TrEMBL record:
Boundaries of every Nucleotidyl transferase domain copy: 6-266
CDD domains tied to this protein: UGPase_prokaryotic (cd02541)
Endpoints of the signal sequence: none
E.C. no: 2.7.7.9
InterPro entries membership: GalU_uridylyltTrfase_bac/arc, NTP_transferase_dom, Nucleotide-diphossugar_trans
GO molecular function: UTP:glucose-1-phosphate uridylyltransferase activity
Reactions the enzyme catalyzes: alpha-D-glucose 1-phosphate + UTP + H(+) = UDP-alpha-D-glucose + diphosphate
Keywords, comma-separated and alphabetical: Nucleotidyltransferase, Transferase
Protein name: UTP--glucose-1-phosphate uridylyltransferase
Family, similarity comment: Belongs to the UDPGP type 2 family.
Gene Ontology BP annotations: UDP-alpha-D-glucose metabolic process
SUPFAM superfamilies, per the entry: Nucleotide-diphospho-sugar transferases
Amino acid sequence: MKPIRKAVIPAAGYGTRFLPATKSIPKEMIPIVDKPVIQYIVEEAIQSGIEEILVITGHGKRAIEDHFDTNVELEYHLRQQGKLQHLELVQEISKINVHYIRQKHMRGLGDAILCAESFIDNEPFAVLLGDDIIYHEQEPAMHQLMRMYNKYGATMVGCQTLNGNQAVPRNILQSVATEKTGISRFLNVEKAVGHEADGKSAMLGRYVLTPDVFEILRRVQPDENGEIRLADALKLMASRQAVYTCQIEGKHYDVGNQLDYLKATVECALRRPEVKDAFRTYLNQYI
């Protein structure tokens, strides 16, 4: 069984839930405290043992490439000003091995993954969606999924049980439990919103896919919006072979919606030792 060395991060979407900001700024570059969303995703992949990352971009996403590139002028300025801590910070970002390819037409997540076929080169691979940030103090979410893949050797779909009213539609999993705690056989996906999603298991934006997913994606019929859905490919795959869902531990933020974005910003700030005490004191004024 081949190890998982590569990850794909789809980042070509328009980010309409964050308009008007995303009219000129990629949604993946919106910061949480002082770090853009996509950097949290990339760091999770690296901490999980991923060696190479492919970001699927689109029109107006050049800022993502610039963020992970070397900025000679900025580094010179920081060195001249003696701001060595900031210099080290920007240099560490540019050391990350990131590749890019454009999704020329917005045809859904499945089409974005198809763009990665030549990069993957017939290996199993990770997929991390940029709208989902998952915080776990001990083990990154993707590492949890990769660990389960190493046991089962099959496609793994990360999920969590929903608690509370869901403001946006979520992909609810239909699955059959196995003898292993937290592991189920994937059957299908359905959309749910509000209280109807409470207590159900939902897809979490983390996947480990086997390379045969590309052949299956080419067979999937586009939906009514002309998009190729990964969920449809997983359903077709599950009719032919084992596909598993895995409960992921950690605090999940869907930063594509405003409320979760604000929660992520506040809670990430409260984890930062340099600002947490002063920030908590400030927040106590409004409690």
